[in-house]
Amino acid sequence: MSLPGKWDGIVVSGGNMANIVAFIVARKAKATWDIRQKGLADAESRRLVLYGSAEMHTWINKAADLCGLGTDAVRWIATDKEHRLRPHALRQAIEADRGAGLSPFMVCGTAGSVGTGAIDPLAEIAKICKEFDLWFHVDGAYGAPAVALDDASADLKGLRLADSIAIDPHKWLYAPLEAGCTLIRNREDLHDAFAFKPSYYQFDDNEGQEVKNYFEYGPQNSRGFRALKIWLGFLQSGASGYRRMIADDIELAHRLYDFIGQQQLLEQGTVSLSIATFRFVPADLRKRSMEAGAVTDYLNELNARIATALRLSGRAFVSNAHIGDRYMLRACIVNFRTTLADVELLPTTIVELGRGLDVRFRP
Fold first, then answer.
1. Domain ranges of the chain
2. Strand partners, 109
3. pLDDT tens per residue, range 204-228
4. How would you write 243-291 as a 3-class SS string?
5. How far does the chain reach from its first CA to its final CA, in angstroms?
6. For a FRET experiment, which of 17, 40, 152, 327 has its CA 20 to 30 Å from that of 267?
7. What is the pTM of this model?
């Protein structure tokens, strides 16, 4: 990933925990009082708030809830037509909160959103964080590994400016569950957020050998050897192998998007990284497909039925995304066994199912 400096981190269960660990580190690093000892209700405390795009994953709600800030502390910033956070809106929100006496401490950028694979303008967010002295975290659970590609976008390369990054190797590094990872720019920030030194922990003396006690770098004391499967994957494929597989997935997603465009009964949505979105639209409803109300409601129901029918058929699996009030079918290619023949077949399969379900369920 070409991260500058000497980063540190810890392997955890998955993307949610990887992000939550970074959240806890940021809270400790940016609180202006001793939050670990005095908590959130101390007389010196201030109301902490944080920011992310409207497309941000729900892990942020869990983190704000579990860490005592409450979900009202999360500021959901509007996105542009490409579903990326608007820097100007972010700046306005930070200034408004500071003016109200609140304490902004963290901005969460997204490198590959769940629904569409959108990448926030990370370099611009980094500048704002530096200006306001905020922690800059990047949720790269899905998309971060793609920064290793030579043609990675400038937005994606901006994750190298982050204070912390969450990565999910069981997504785009093809590892089995469980495998998540938190990366922290400053090792001491990670240690300071979790370390305790009770008298009954006697693990520092290891006959002169340097010891890293991982219970001081995360929420767990007892931990499985999750790193083994990731390490074995790199031994098998090497960094160059991963780059090739990730690039192939991206190419397949774009080819799928092209194949979708060739089908008169399919409507293209978005394509970013290895995620393509689209939906089935009967020919007689195409001119009205963007209308709010009954037509959109029916198309949403119809495409949800298509997703279910496809899964039950055993022929393929797609999930869903919501773009505005439209329910979209979502193909996220993160399997190195997916072939061009697979993505060429998917649109015709969707059309076949859509036609039959439309005849059956049209009001």
1. 8-224, 239-361
2. 138
3. 666 777 778 899 999 998 989 999 9
4. HHHHHHHHHHHHHHHHHHHCCCCEEEEEEECCEEEEEECCHHHHHHCCC
5. 52
6. 152
7. 0.94
